[in-house]
Amino acid sequence: MDYKKILINRRSVRNYLEKQVPIETILEIIHESTYAPSSGNEQPWKFIIINDRIAMKNISEEAKSNILNWIESNPNDNVKKYETLLKNKEYNIFYNASTVVLIIGDTNLKNTKVNCALAGSYFMMSATSRNLGTCWINFATHIKSKDMIKQLGIPENHEIVAPIIIGYPAEVPTIPLRKEPEIIRII
Question: Strand order of the sheet with strand 46-50?
């Protein structure tokens, strides 16, 4: 797949087949994502692969609970628009995908979030080149349970930056309307 086609075909997929992506493929995609640029060439990203659906469901429930608690304490926050969805017991933040990859980074480094986001972008493009679907699930950054953080193997002073689901798409959404670039000035 050529580069422009990858850019055009990358979608936020929220409907997946039951088929598991081979671990070898996920490892190749992770390897390719490490070609992303990073400030000072820090390459701060680390990866956690979760294929276990029970673990994913537990993460989903933890995140939903934490976000709902946040909404209760901050009723004017923009995230309130997701309240009904998050209260739905059937809703899984991972859309029943077979795998989630957590891209985590060192919180002691100044540009970790940007650097890990770049790796996440490369991850999604690499997956797209293989006709796989992905979706960045920001809800999964809301893990607070020390036990869950320990179970996931997240080292001290690290945070989840880019939680990305991956799988074989059951359907691929159409291209959303894109705004024309707003060029402020050419100097």
Answer: 46-50, 99-106, 158-167, 133-136
Classify residue 26 by burial, with Cβ atoms within 10 Å: 0-12, 13-18, 19+: buried
pTM of the model: 0.94
Q: How far apart are CA 164 and CA 141, in angstroms?
A: 11
Q: Taking the domains of the chain in order of start, what are their residue ranges?
A: 3-167
Query: DSSP secondary-structure letter at 168?
Result: -
- The domain 3-167 having CATH identifier 3.40.50.2300: the answer here is no
Q: Is the pLDDT of residue 1 over 90?
A: no
Is residue 127 exposed (0-12), middle (13-18) or buried (19+ Cβ within 10 Å)? buried
The total of other beta-carbon atoms located within 10 Å of residue 163's CB is: 26
